[in-house]
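Mods, move this if it's the wrong board.
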Amino acid sequence: MNRYSFSLTTFAPNGKLLQIEHALAAVGNGSTSVGIKAANGVVIATEKKTGSSLIDVSSLEHMVMVCDSIGMVYSGMGPDFRVLVNSARKAAQKYKRMYMEDPPVRILVKELASIMQEFTQSGGVRPFGVSLLIAGVDDRGPNLYQVDPSGSYFPWKATAIGKNMVNSKTFLEKRFDSDIDLEDAVYTAILTLKEGFEGQMTEQSIDVGVISTIPTTQADGEPKMPTFQRLTPAEIKDYLSNVA
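Not the wrong board. Structure tokens:
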């Protein structure tokens, strides 16, 4: 065993923090998640697999709404994700109380990345064993970011994390088009997950979330701001029925 692998705050001779490498391995063992930025919105999708058929899959929460205009999904360790969800929601509410609007996606991403980075240089803690895909809409339009355990974050047009990341990215590179619309992006995300999916894919075994930039109106005629929505099992079933 490498003597540097037990220390988070000590660099190995090759310049790596090995605990971060181990955290990335935990991400690589997690469910595959996919994100695609379309011309008029963003879609994120993930597998909802369980270790036993006796588990109620409806209780699993791989994807969450942080605030009205932002949602996120993870690959890796679920308990670590819950901690980051709480931090993200607190940061979003703090921003909204101050500025009376949801935070821009990049501001929330920086906040979460700072928290994750802090856990790479503090004694007595370990890195978060998750990578995040954060999707949202703000004044810059649709946004898709990936945040890794090291605290690094990058904007993406399309990306994948988790167990089947390499094959999923290869598939996305072949299928992605910068002019893709949100509807086609949902189909592409499902097809990407299907590439490495083990067993039968059903509406209960995947989760899909979308946010559109297309303006809508409320019942009272007031404009409705873009809102992140998780597709219902019935909606996912409709998409699956049209996937070859």
